[in-house]
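I'll show an entry:

:::
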Amino acid sequence: MKRLTLFMALAMSVCAMSANAAFVDYTDRADYLNQVAAESMSLTMIDFTGLAAGTTLTNQYAGLDVMFDGSDTIVNNTAFVEDGWGVYDIGTIELMFIAPMTHVGADFPGTLAIDLYQGTTLVASSADFGSTGTGFFGGRLTDDSFFDRVILSDWNGPVASIDTLYFGGVVGSVVPEPASLS
């Protein structure tokens, strides 16, 4: 009986660790990119340098499997230390992915929080990234779940902004449409 109790306790703790380990936050871009490569995940990077300042983002990056909600604006500002270009929104930056994704990250000034969704269902929220200043990175990766929508917000104020955006999924994976599961 003692062995069974010990086995059950051990099994329950392993299951709890697995459930809690589904999503990993990264504050170091190199660590994030190394893990993406180690997991053989695809990687897309958008630096926002190809559009004019003041451009409102909608479907300009649909060819890269991401669309914006139409409230985000391209800006040229020294706060975006990677290249001087980024995205700004009073409120949140909403990303809608055409294909399911397994990771997302961004260089950003100030503070950032990342919420991952499957449709309208929140599946995970990141830690609060950043602080006062510029040159921060925040990323979220999972190897056992997918998301198709991301909300980026400033946990310390009303303005969301990102410098360079990174995202991708599992190479060669096929996720069935919900209707095909019945």
Residues 2-20 form the longest helix (19 residues). DSSP finds two helices and 15 strands in the chain. Confidence is low (pLDDT under 50) at residues 1-21, 178-182. The CA atoms of residues 47 and 164 lie 5 Å apart.
